Amino acid sequence: xxxxxxxxxxxxxxxxxxxxxxxxxxxxxxxxxxxxxxxxxxxxxxxxxxxxxxxxxxxxxxxxxxxxxxxxxxxxxxxxxxxxxxxxxxxxxxxxxxxxxxxxxxxxxxxxxxxxxxxxxxxxxxxxxxxxxxxxxxxxxxxxxxxxxxxxxxxxxxxxxxxxxxxxxxxxxxxxxxxxxxxxxxxxxxxxxxxxxxxxxxxxxxxxxxxxxxxxxxxxxxxxxxxxxxxxxxxxxxxxxxxxxxxxxxxxxxxxxxxxxxxxxxxxxxxxxxxxxxxxxxxxxxxxxxxxxxxxxxxxxxxxxxxxxxxxxxxxxxxxxxxxxxxxxxxxxxxxxxxxxxxxxxxxxxxxxxxxxxxxxxxxxxxxxxxxxxxxxxxxxxxxxxxxxxxx
Length: 392
Fold this sequence. Notes:
The longest helix is centred in the middle third of the chain and has 23 residues, at about 170-190. Helices cover about 45% and strands about 15% of the residues. It has 18 helices and 13 strands. By secondary structure, the protein is α/β, with parallel strands linked by helices. Helix 5 (about 85-100) crosses helix 6, helix 10 (about 170-190) crosses helix 11 and helix 11 packs across helix 14 (about 270-275). The protein has two domains: about 10-135, Rossmann fold, CATH 3.40.50; about 140-390, no CATH class. The mean pLDDT is about 90. A hairpin with a 5-residue loop joins strand 8 (about 310-315) and strand 9. A six-stranded mixed sheet has the order 8-9-10-11-13-12.
């Protein structure tokens, strides 16, 4: 498979240089292992890689304290660490001893697929000792250097094996297998009390409702389950980094604001696979096309914005709306509308919402590359250009 550069690699190396441990989170097959092996390959003092889904590697950790102490000086990469929660106490003791000896950085890179469970386990033992980083599917500015265009990224999504498949049918087959694997393996593993078939039905419903505010009562009625059960299913999909809850803006404007989060399936390729859309023409002919493109753009922009900005959306009962608001220091800084049109034009409500929030930096992202002014004080801009602006 073609090697692709990941922006997060710099951040992982930086955090390892500054602290004793980094937890790298992300869904399966997103490239965590590839990234970790790349870092390990040129680690100046050597590295060891352990995959806790391999029996041989679990055996190596039968006496974990002694084994890990023998690796002193090396970078130890432990994949799928949520399968061995007892390791966190061992790591705490080793990290604290090394810190006391003045050796407090670059020892452990921990990989995991279940964010909440892993963070709970780590928080109990490694509070203040570990940095958390999320690896998302490939973004446009990671795919473009490899000759992959925006339409291909939108159709296939950003999971490397899907994106780099030989053709569109092979990509769709990979995504179908990915979905089946999660429902048959990961849901029973991480949430054994939740029926995988019902989670699968919800996942497909969310694909149809891409970008809609969460309405638990409506979903519960369609699934024939309770509203709290829907909440648990959504929690699981969000925990597995498959669904994003985009929160609403919650400041005080003296107006009635939408309070429910918007739900997005985080990878557009999975949206299309759940709906059995295998070609770009099939996507364009489906009602989900606009919302799917919006979700892809929002995911890319949130990744480009990084930790310096927080993301939300804005909607009032009167119809004033902003698809994506990026804040810095608690203040709205940038308003972004998404239009899958070669002749985009912001809605009147977009301008009203920007005025309400006092946002001057206003963009309409569209599937083109030319930048030009629009009404409502906005600028039409391509996704790649705005990502460069945010990363800069």
